[in-house]
Amino acid sequence: MTNLLIDTPHGPARVELHCAEEGRAALLLGHGAGGGFGAKDLIAVTRAAQGAGVHVALVEQPYRVAGRRAPAPARQLDAAWLAVAEELAGTRFDGMPLVFGGRSSGARVACRTAAEGQAAAVLCLAFPTHPPGKPEKTRQPELDAVEVPTLVIQGETDPFGRPQAGPHHEVVLLKGDHSLSADLQGIARSATEWLEKVLRPLSS
Q1: Residue limits of the KANL3/Tex30 alpha/beta hydrolase-like domain (predicted)?
Q2: Tens-digit pLDDT profile for residues 57-67
Q3: Most buried pick, 4, 43, 88, 185, via CB within 10 A?
Q4: What CATH number has the domain bearing residue 51?
């Protein structure tokens, strides 16, 4: 494991690198609004990706590095994420396909930045389709706008809703709520199978 600080327009972001033995691609994972790298689903996906020959970069947003609890505005989150992706793409992961991903708020960032960041695919954990109890405030359009292969792993009883599948994205429902901690083996299996599928044509 390697720790880096990468400058962004909104302060330094912290990156925790977990490299595979022979990496064929890289997965950037963002955290939820109030959580960090210790989320069980992020850990499960990190280990699964490494086992599938994919390097993982866990990205901590500048607001958390600075010790703030309240999330930064979406435009700042996106700008910081893209700065990290650009730096890693030109150095550590030069020439490799990049997969954007994250849990909850981090999944939204991955979706919003996928096109500009030239992501080859997107992996969403617990995508917050709407605020709890407010289905009218849907964020489904953020997911629908992604035009590369996308996997959403969602808890069946997530109070943040259940996203709909679409032409470019599939939804896997697992036992559990927004924490996605009830079926970690299911998360790892789903992520591994999907990564193998989407990366096969890119590495052939």
Answers
A1: 24-165
A2: 999 999 999 99
A3: 88
A4: 3.40.50.1820
